[in-house]
Amino acid sequence: MLRLRLAAAAWCSAPRRPLSVSPRRLAAGSALKTPKGTRDHPPAQVALRDRLVGTVVACFKRHGAAAIDTPVLELRETLMGKYGDNSKLIYELQDQGGELLALRYDLTVPFARYLAMNKITNIKRYHIAKVYRRDNPATTRGRYREFYQCDFDIAGQFDPMLPDAECVKIVHEILSDLQLGDFLIKVNDRRILNGVLAVCGIPESKFITTCSTIDKLDKVPWEYVKNEMVGEKGLSPEAADRIGEYVQLHGGLDLIEQLLQDPKLSQNKLAKEGLGDMKLLFEYLTLFGITGKISFDLSLARGLDYYTGVIYEAVLLQQQNDHVEDPVSVGSVAGGGRYDGLVGMFDPKGRKVPCVGVSIGIERIFSILEQRVEASEEKIRTTETQVLVASAQKKLLEERLKLISELWDAGIKAEILYKKNPKLLNQLQYCEDTGIPLVAIVGEQELKDGVVKLRVVATREEVNIRRENLIEEIRMRTSQL
Amino acid sequence: MLRLRLAAAAWCSAPRRPLSVSPRRLAAGSALKTPKGTRDHPPAQVALRDRLVGTVVACFKRHGAAAIDTPVLELRETLMGKYGDNSKLIYELQDQGGELLALRYDLTVPFARYLAMNKITNIKRYHIAKVYRRDNPATTRGRYREFYQCDFDIAGQFDPMLPDAECVKIVHEILSDLQLGDFLIKVNDRRILNGVLAVCGIPESKFITTCSTIDKLDKVPWEYVKNEMVGEKGLSPEAADRIGEYVQLHGGLDLIEQLLQDPKLSQNKLAKEGLGDMKLLFEYLTLFGITGKISFDLSLARGLDYYTGVIYEAVLLQQQNDHVEDPVSVGSVAGGGRYDGLVGMFDPKGRKVPCVGVSIGIERIFSILEQRVEASEEKIRTTETQVLVASAQKKLLEERLKLISELWDAGIKAEILYKKNPKLLNQLQYCEDTGIPLVAIVGEQELKDGVVKLRVVATREEVNIRRENLIEEIRMRTSQL
């Protein structure tokens, strides 16, 4: 123990490994599980996830975003009062003396805290990390208590809708790059929604609850929604019908123009602002050439009183004759919007930093890709080893070690079996099992001739390569892999 | 709110963003900090860390390792009884109903839990992730309560010292690749150390405490160590001197041979085993050609009763005329060893899975690299943007958006200023500030001529490129960057 404490003191954060384990303190076998709603990621999952995250990050970087990292732990008071009723889902740490801590619930509140704390008024950043929710998720459907969020946000005071349009473009690029099938990006603006409710004579006190009903329109028919409005939310049938005339609308520029001419709506200041910006957004998205997959949808509400302007949500569309996905798996895979008020909540002087962002549902997308891989029976390699250094006869361990050391030092990804005298068959089998494409076989004769026998696992083709050319040959043969 | 709950239920892990923020529940300005011992990583730090991690991961993959991920949360009982006195440094979560949880203290115990839980008897894995310790770290010296660990481990029953030798080779490769200056890898074996103490007549009950004293030999002279042994640990001066004759020794194969001939030590079974394996290790390291930086050092102990065999630790050596590092910053940057008992602690039947691993001190190395960067005044780019799409005159926003959209779709990393009519000077200044190497300038004349003016920020050279050749030109000019 003492050693390690000394170590810590003298060596800053030198690698610290576990200490003094005495068999007396065996862990109970009962501990052999991960906490509820959490999971280990075995190599195959990490490999697939890396592929997914790689595609997403490439897009974020293509748009000039920088990465930041914030602690998993936040002060309890930083998170409290940010998530409404959901605050009860926040993991709190035991009071072990000192500050009261909690695990982050998402990446957006820490981002706002980071901006206010560092007085940053202008940044384009992405952040991919785990967040924590004491939920009761259906892990069978890929939902967990510890899960990754993948956020891209643009903070700063800019000309209208330019960052907003880029966020929508990013969603379009990522979903296209990932080839998840057909998708639709619904857009709306909370100011338009508020305007609609206002001109339909709904008291502001009923906005939120009414919107949560409207929000169901993507799952249930209007009649159901109307009944809930009248029956549960206490709206008059006439008011409900007036709302219905609006929220069942969806379209593009034409619809925006039509609503800008709407005698009632055009009189509402908020709605007019929202429609003006929506028009601008569509003009920009037209220049990006992506309006084909954009739908201005007045029923889209999202987390309403969190957003202050444009909101959007990408959904995958059910495909005909697609046996990979079942209906359940079709749903929202990205969403976001403008939130100009959050950062100001952390600034002592309440200084606002306008923000717009998008969250890519990588857990959702990950489980879709997992289904795809299973269906396609594609075997994902969990390692990148290019060549196994094998021996044809016994007593060649030294030669194997000399050769593999040369390969490592040349940057070749290489493995050997950790056996003094492995059977050639076992060595070849290992390549089959792990997908290693090449085997460099050292044998007595080859050593005499100054060559190495290079075997292509897939074709079983074998060629003798002069030792001095081996590295080049391996590079050449694996460059496409 | 309802919307989001519905969403969660119906859409699996669709992106979930913060909810209902009402200005009434403003966070206190006092919350504007990260928890004690934690920190945000701004873009420049993340960029430098990515560079470092990239080098380390490249080495792990070169050696055929796969990546796994485990939850930050573990069952309390999984961690308890694994860290001796340090268990008091474990962060525990509040009992909010359900399981008692804690934050992982390192990556090794979760790894052992993972192996036992999944009955994995054979894996080569790396894991780079944050761990948590309720320590009182000197954050001024780069130590934190939330920090990254970077572990590579080989689990499985193999022929002696082959995986062990590869771990040492990996440390050698990583420290060489990172160009941290001269370094030394000390190796020892806990069986040799136990043997030494036994033949010096030390009762087993005093092994641990004596070792923690011996361990100080790398910081203080022998006299100090001897005094502590005699004064504090109650050893006889003679016994202390006998120990001194051994633990002050360090060397290579020659020393191993000498100790194998040692009349006393050669009679001790444990010591003999350890020396035999140490000889084998040196033979393998000789084949790897790295013995020049290896020292068999009998004073190296590390977390003694955790390790069961070979142990090693890499230290940076103080360099002459090196103004970058101060003496304090010289120390251990990697360490590890063989631990054959840990996995068995989790297996109900106590089945053992021999393991050997190494932990790279990336926090330590990161702070060294940070010092280097500061000293060198190298400006680290936080983004990878290749080109800024700029305009020479007003009213060219549409053209800028059309062009940048083409570039994004072609995979070019491009940005624009989010202004309708930005001044050319401001656009050029933005490139200077963020290190963007190229500017694609659209102007009225260029549009007429079907060209784009490409400006090299560094040289201020400007060339007109035909629009259809622009993407190729940008790729060509940024391929080396």
| Rg on CA atoms of chain A, Å | 29 Å
Structural class call of chain A reads alpha+beta
Task: Provide the low-confidence segments of chain A as ranges.
Answer: 1-29, 325-329
Strand order of the main beta sheet of chain A, please? Answer: 1-4-5-11-10-9-6-8-7
What pair of chains forms the biggest interface? A-B, 170 and 172 residues
Give the terminus-to-terminus CA distance of chain A: 47 Å
Percentage of residues in helical conformation of chain A: 25-40%
How many β-strand stretches of chain A? 16
Percent in strands of chain A: 15-25%
Average residue pLDDT of chain A = 89
What does the largest sheet of chain A look like?
9 strands, mixed
Query: Which oligomerization state do the chains in this entry correspond to?
Result: homodimer
Instruction: Provide a count of the helices of chain A.
Output: 17
Shape of chain A: elongated
Description of the molecule:
Chains A, B: This is histidine--tRNA ligase. Chains A, B: It catalyses: tRNA(His) + L-histidine + ATP = L-histidyl-tRNA(His) + AMP + diphosphate + H(+). Chains A, B: Residues 60-369 form the Aminoacyl-transfer RNA synthetases class-II family profile domain. Chains A, B: InterPro entries: aa-tRNA-synth_II, aa-tRNA-synth_II/BPL/LPL, Anticodon-bd, Anticodon-bd_dom_sf, His-tRNA-ligase, HisRS-like_core, HisRS/HisZ, HisRS_anticodon. Chains A, B: Keywords: Aminoacyl-tRNA synthetase, ATP-binding, Ligase, Nucleotide-binding, Protein biosynthesis. The structure is a homodimer of 481-residue chains. Chain A has 481 residues and is of the alpha+beta class. Mean pLDDT of chain A is 89; it is low at 1-29 and 325-329. In chain A, the strands form three sheets. Chain A has a nine-stranded mixed beta sheet with strand order 1-4-5-11-10-9-6-8-7. Chain A has 17 helices and 16 strands. The relative contact order of chain A is 0.10. Chain A has helices at residues 2-11, 43-62, 76-79, 108-117, 162-177, 190-199, 207-214, 222-231, 237-247, 253-261, 269-287, 342-346, 362-376, 397-409, 424-434, 444-449, 470-478, and strands at residues 66-67, 73-75, 101-103, 123-132, 146-155, 183-189, 250-251, 294-297, 310-316, 332-338, 355-360, 387-391, 414-415, 438-442, 451-456, 462-466. In chain A, 39% of the residues lie in helices and 17% in strands. The longest helix of chain A has 20 residues, at 43-62. The interface between A and B is large, with 170 and 172 residues.
